[in-house]
Structure formats: structure tokens, C-alpha cells
Amino acid sequence: MNQSKSLRPFFIIWSGQALSLVGSAAVQFALIWWLTQETGSATILATASLVAFLPQVLLGPFAGVLVDRWSRRWTMFLADGGIALATLLLAYLFWTESIQIWHIFALMFVRSLGGAFHGPAMQASTSLMVPHEHLTRVQGINQMLEGGLGIIGAPLGALLLAALPMQGILAVDVVTALFAIIPLLFIAVPQPEKSAEEMATGQKTPYWTQMRQGLAYVWAWPGILFLMLLAMLVNFVLTPVISLQPLLIADHFGGGAWQFGAMQSVFGVGIIIGGLVLGAWGGFKKRIHTSLVGMVGLGVGISLIGLAPANLFWLAVVGGFIGGSMIAMVNGPVRAILQIAVAPDMQGRVMSLIVSLATAMTPLGLMLAGPLADQFGVRPWFIVAGVATILVGLTGFFIPALLAVEDGRSAPTSLPERTTDQSAQVTQ
């Protein structure tokens, strides 16, 4: 990859994607609130959550192979375009007053499926459009965006609900999606070099062969395996924290909607500040050190929320801010590591597999945390989750393969031969 390449094409695409995500966040809130108002059913809301993440868990690894086989530019274009068309169809159903609950579920499924393709394609493209020394900073900016979406998504959705009918809100989402789609028609997105086998035969490697190669690639690389394991463990203990937070605020602190909103907002502000710091600083020279330190800090923040006495809600807020800011320090460098360490033509498969396995921990964590919280209270889970996260972060400093993951010392060597030039080829 040409290290002096301008970042302008990347940020044009990124800006369009960011605007589209703002529209999507508002629509997601509006749809959930519509389901709440229309049904008042916890089962319906739980089903909506399930539909929203299952496609990425179950289909993510299969989509990752296709991301590596197809043009990443057109993968993003089709994913965004498919979501926009489905949203437009839903707007029509609202407009004609023929909407049904399953229509909402269908749109959520399509959005999640599109994300299973779009996310890995965008991440894999980033590594070929951004010089490696800037990848951690770019991921810091991404963390700022995610934190910002967490803050503005709900109020923006509420504002749109007050001003527009549902079909109007969906139309706004379609318009913002165009800002993500149109740049992809004019800006070239690099593709990784073909493997030596494909160049020799002139034919694509069969789908299932590529699937097996992706699994073998991960299995033969201890550093990536440990990174994946850490992500799964942290997701397992921390996901329930989000779901149990309202109970902690209501039962322990005796708070209401204002306190809950304050905690949510402070957490989002923390992510933005952490992303801003990471974007300006760039992290330690070894990115994995930044992530592990961030993981320890995240555990400290979560523990502080659980340890705060009932009359010191402000201390829990401080813990929420620390936790939010440390999330950026954990996630940003890990994504940069994957973009640098993983071979460009394997990134779709590897990233999809990691996301799928980490996300699969969500229902497992909730299934365990719910009964335990009912039995022993909510606070112990926050404390245990925080301490477990601290221990996972500290343990990482004693795993040589993990510490070497980004410099290639533990990279697999018994894989199908590749071309020696792993630079990007630009396709129109």
C-alpha cells in the first residue's frame, strides 16, 4: 500500500457512512418505541432484539468469506442499498397503513444482515486505504462516532417522532443512506492481491475451501486465538451490565429516569472523550498494550459503579465515565491490530468470525446474569464483572503470543502460498 496516499477518499466514504449511521440510530429508536407503544409486550421487544443480532452471529462467518471473495466496494454498495430499499418498502407500508409487526422484524433482520456484510467490508477496506501508522487514530475517531450515536440516537429519534409520521422518519433514513451509497459509485476502493494459486489458475478458490482456509488461518495463529478469547470473555461478563443497569439505578440508588439518562449520557460522553484522546495520541507503540491497559481501566470503572454506596450516585457516574472512555482504548487498537496483522485477503473472514463469536456471548451472559442477579442482587454482578475484566486485562500482559500478535512473530506459516506483494490493487 502506498503510505503517502491521501486520506481524502477514505474520509469522503467515512463521512457518508457516519451520516447514514446517524439516520439509522434515530430509526432504530423510533421503531423500538413504536413497538413499545403498539404492543406493550416484553416478548415482542425481546424478539426484536433477537432478530437484530442473530443474523450477525449465525451468518457472520459465512458473510465474511463472501466479503473476501467479492469486491468490497460493491459489497458495501449492495449492503447499504439493500437496507435502503427495505426501509423504503417499510415506509410505504406505514404510509398505506398496512403495517404489521412481522414487517418490522423483517426490516430489522435485513438491517442486521446488511451489517454482517458491510461492517467487515468497511473494516477490511480501511486497512488498504489508510496508512498503518494512522489506523489507531482512525479507530479512535470511529469510537467517537459510536459514542456520539449512543448519545444523540435516542433524542433525535424522539424529536423525529414528535415532528414526523413513521413513514417520514423512515424516509429520512433513506436520504441519509444515499450519502453512504453515492460516494461508492465514484471512489475506488482497493482490493487485496489475489493468492498465488488464483493468479496461476485464473480461477477463484472455491467458497468452502476459502471458509476452511479462514478457520485454519485463525486456528494456526495463537495470538489471534487469544485475542478472540479475551473478546469473548469480556463480552460475556460485561453485556449483562448494560441490561442490569436500570435495575441497579432503581433498586440500589433509588433513582429514576433522570439518573438512568444521566448514566447513559455520561457513558456516551466517556466513549467520545476516549476516542478523542486515542485519535490525538495514537496509543502506545505496541497497540495491544493500549488495549490491555484500557481493559484494566474498563474493569475499574465497572467495579466502581457496583461498589458505589447508595448515597454516592455521583461515584457511580464517575465509574460510568471511566468505563466509557476505556472502551475506546480497548476497541480502537484491537481493530487496528486486526487491520495491520491479518493478511488483507483474510480480513473479512477473520473479522466476521471474531464479531460473531464475541456477539454470541451476549445471550449466554444474559442467561447466567439474570437468575444470579435475582438471587443475589444486581451489585455483585457489576463487581464480579469489573474484577474479571481487570484480571483478563492483566493476564494478557503474560501471554507472549498475544503481545506479539501485531508484529507477525506468531503469524501462521503453514497456509496456502500467497503472493509476496500484499499491497492493494485498486479496482474501479
List the helices and strands and how they pair.
Blueprint: H1 8-39, H2 42-69, H3 72-95, H4 101-129, H5 135-163, H6 166-181, H7 183-186, E1 189-192, H8 196-201, H9 207-219, H10 222-252, H11 257-281, H12 287-307, H13 313-341, H14 347-376, H15 379-396, H16 400-403, E2 424-427
Antiparallel strand pairs: 1-2
Helix pairs in contact: 1-2, 1-4, 1-5, 1-6, 2-4, 2-9, 2-14, 3-4, 3-6, 4-13, 4-14, 5-11, 5-13, 10-14, 10-15, 11-13, 12-13, 12-15
Range of strand content:
under 5%
Order of helices and strands: HHHHHHHEHHHHHHHHHE
Number of strands: 2
What name does the CATH topology of the largest domain carry? Growth Hormone, Chain: A
> What is the count of helical runs?
16
Q: How many individual domains?
A: 2
Notes on the structure:
The protein has 2 domains: 8-134 and 143-186, Growth Hormone, Chain: A; 211-403, Up-down Bundle (Growth Hormone, Chain: A), CATH 1.20.1250.20. The protein contains 16 helices and 2 strands. It has helices spanning 8-39, 42-69, 72-95, 101-129, 135-163, 166-181, 183-186, 196-201, 207-219, 222-252, 257-281, 287-307, 313-341, 347-376, 379-396, 400-403, and strands at residues 189-192, 424-427. It has a two-stranded antiparallel sheet with strand order 1-2. The longest helix is centred in the N-terminal third of the chain and has 32 residues, at 8-39. It is globular and about 70 Å long. The protein starts with 7 loop residues before the first helix and ends with a strand.
